Each structure stands twice: as C-alpha cells, then as structure tokens.
Amino acid sequence: MAPSSTQEIPISGHTVVIESSNKRKKPDSSDPTIYDAYHKHFVSDGLPSTTEGWLSRARAVAEIFSVDAAARDIENKSPKAEVALLKSSGLLKVLGPKEYGGGGETWETGYKVIREVAKGDGSLGMLPLAENFIEGNLFVGGAVNPRDNDLSITDAGDHLVFDGFKNFNTGGVISDLTVLEGVYAGTEHHIFAFVRTDQPGIQFQYNWNNVGLRLTESGSVKISQVQVPWSDALGWSTITRLPDLKVLAIPFASLLLPTIQLVFSNFYLGIAQGSLDFASKYTTKSTRAWPFGGDNKEKPTEEFYILERYGNFFAHLRAAETLADRAGKEIADIYGKYGANRKVTERERGEAAEWVASTKIVTTDTALRVTAGVFEVTGSRATGKTVGLDRFWRDVRTHTLHDPVAYKNRELGEYVLLDRVPEPTWYT
Questions:
Q1: Cβ atoms 352, 255 nearer than 8 A
Q2: Among residues 126, 121, 123, which one has the least CA distance to residue 64?
Q3: Of 191, 237, 271, 406, whose Cβ has the fewest other Cβ atoms within 10 Å?
Q4: HEC string of 21-63?
Q5: DSSP-derived secondary structure letter, 423
Q6: Do 125 and 118 meet the contact criterion of CB atoms below 8 Å apart?
Q7: CA–CA separation, 365 vs 374, rounded Å?
Q8: Which PANTHER family does the entry link to (predicted)?
Q9: Are 351 and 376 in contact (CB under 8 A)?
Q10: What is the pLDDT of residues 246-282, one digit of tens each?
Q11: Whole-angstrom Cα distance, residue 237 to residue 223?
C-alpha cells in the first residue's frame, strides 16, 4: 500500500482518526515529439568519437533542458520526453564498450557528463545514473534501497519470485527495465536482477511529491510475484544457488559503492554550477542595485558584496571540481589497472574510496552553500516560483540526505588518525 499518514482530531469528546494517503493519480507525461528536431539532429550526427565530443553533447542536452526546467518542475509531469532525448543523444551509452555500440569512455568522462546534464536540470541529471543496456539503448530504473527489507525473494525451482514493497524506485515509471533487489529467504544475501518494467507485477504508487528532484519519479513501488529466472540473478551461480565468489571478487563488486558515491558528488557539483550560472544571468539582467548602502552604485554588478559573493562561490566550486576530477581519475585508473586480472587490494580500494569520501564531503557542503547563497546576490524577486532559482537548492537538499555526510567525515577522521581504510558497505 502507499505511504499514508493519520491524524487524530478530538470532536465532542470523541477522537476521530483520519487517514490520508499520499498516493496521487498517475501523472501526465511530457510529449517526446517536442524534441523531434533535436532527436533528428543527434541521430544524424551519430555518437561522439572523442571525450570532448561527449562533453559537448552533454552540454547541448543540458542547454535544451535548461530552457524550460523551471516550468517543468512546476508541472511535475513524468519526463518521458526528456528520457527520450537522453536516449537519442546517446548519453546513456557513454560508458558502454564500443563493440556493443557504446562510447567506450571511462568513468572519468562519465562523471563529467553527469555533471554537465545536472547543470541544466538536477532531476534529469540524476537519471543518467541509471544503468543502461547499450545495444537496445534501454533506460533502467532502480528499486534498490538496502534500508528497505520489505522485498523478499523465494526459490521456485527454475526461477525466483520477488514479492514485497520498495519505498523508493528512481526513474522506475519512465524506465524500460527495473533492477530489483531483495533478501533471499533464509539467508542474509541480497540478490539483484533486471526485469521488464511493463508487467502487472510492478505497480507504481505515483506518490513521489518531494521538495526536490521532482521529475525523477522516485516514488514507491509494489512488487507482486515477479518471476525471475535463476540465470538472471546477478553474481549468483545457477548450479550451487549461491553467490559466485569469482564474480564477487571483480573490481566492480568491491568498487561499486564508491563509484556510485562519486556519481552523487558530480551530480551535486553540476547542480551548484548550474545555479551559479543561472543566478549570474539573473543578476545581470534583473537584480537592482541597493540604494541605501552608503557607497551606492548604479548597477548591481558594480556592488562590492555582489562581486565578492560571486567570486567566493566560484572559487569554492572550482576547488570542488578539481577534487571531483582527481577522484574520478583515481576510480578510472583503478578500474583500468585491475580490469584484466579482476582483483583489487584492500588498501588500494580503500585509498580510492577516501578520495571519493573527500569529494562527497566537499561537494555536499559547497553545493548546499552555493545553491542557498545565490539568493543573496539576486534579490527577493528571485524567489518567485516561476523564476525557478529555488529548484537548485531543493534538488541538492533532497539528495544529500540520501546518506548522512557526517559519517563520511568520521570515516575520513579514522583514515587520517588511525590509517584505517573503510570496509566495503552499502554506502562506502
């Protein structure tokens, strides 16, 4: 069932309990045909062949998204059109092997692509985080949340049965495939599997109405008797019905979480950079100089405190970007080094994870500071709903609560003081 809330109201000596559901009706979707001209252009050009070409493609997509991002945030329609544009642009293929029709780029490039798209629209910048199937150009949503233990998996002979509930399912409503995750009955082991989204057993609750990331369609989903062949259980042996230790030993298995954590960091960074760019255009065009400061200027762009704030924000974003790029190189290098023999040492994995943790801390702090601080240099009229400057802060504030950054600070403290590298967990 959908999340609900109850309220007790005393009436004439009696208590009446009113229960209200947060579930909303299935939302309207944006129309993919609005981007027809761009679809044709991207398809005609084909996939970029260089790293700079991929970044240029990401910037082009971000520019398209930025034009009406504020209006789309207000309308809150499922971004069917925008996902279609991500597909036709080829951005979902950037990391895929070239032999399967992908871009063949490293995570270092992938992180920068995410950052660029997030500048245009934070909600849509999060969507390329999803896995994709290269040849079919499929978009994958994720019903994966290790804190939810409401999805059970049972053995039914030649297949598994997934049954239960997930509070969050990022991009599920607009996906081709959904990755399910749950606990295998009678064990502590988790099983992941890709399934077709369009099936009766996957029932979206359409209850995503949060303060930020409104277009990610990350609401809850009910999973009812979804059957998955044992051969589709990722990392599991079809013979022993146990986790395949050879598969679990590959770098991707132990590096998956820091890899994704760095995705988040670049996502935050891109949103903050987008907010500063948006604010600077607004300040130049619409902000009025303050007439009671004692050192009055005719233009806001001549005022000391406005120039000082923009300079300070820019410096911190530039520092965060440099750190994010360094961490991205660390991740890309370790994949490149160990991709052949499929092993990675605890120390090297931990060192890379601490670069990621450092980036997560800095981008979280900086993005929250910048996306809130830009209002100081734009003025009260910039808080207007149709202006849309608030969407940057709302998106960052929403996702930075994904896992408390305070624990990343503690983790780094242990690394500095005790030379202790983090053990792999769901969030490290």
A1: yes
A2: 121
A3: 406
A4: ECCCCCCCECCHHHHHHHHHHHHHHCCCCCHHHHHHHHHHHHH
A5: P
A6: yes
A7: 14
A8: ACYL-COA DEHYDROGENASE, ISOVALERYL-COA DEHYDROGENASE, MITOCHONDRIAL-RELATED
A9: no
A10: 666 666 678 889 999 999 999 999 999 999 999 999 9
A11: 24
Token pair recorded at residue 416: 């500095």
**Three-class SS state of 198:** coil
Alpha carbon 66 to chain centroid, angstroms: 17
Q: How far is CA 153 from the centre of its chain?
A: 26
Task: Please give the DSSP secondary-structure letter assigned to residue 389.
Answer: T
Residues 367, 265: contact at Cβ < 8 Å?
no
Partners of 8 in the beta sheet?
Answer: 17
- pTM for the predicted model, two decimal places: 0.89
**Distance (Å, whole) CA 303 – CA 296:** 8
Report DSSP state, residue 94. Answer: T
* pLDDT class of 172 with cuts at 50, 70, 90: confident
User: Which two tokens mark 277?
Assistant: 């760019």
Q: What is the pLDDT of residues 110-161, one digit of tens each?
A: 999 999 999 999 988 878 775 556 667 778 888 787 776 778 999 999 999 9
What the chain holds in terms of domains, given with CATH numbers, is 32-129 (1.10.540.10), 141-244 (2.40.110.10), 249-418 (1.20.140.10)
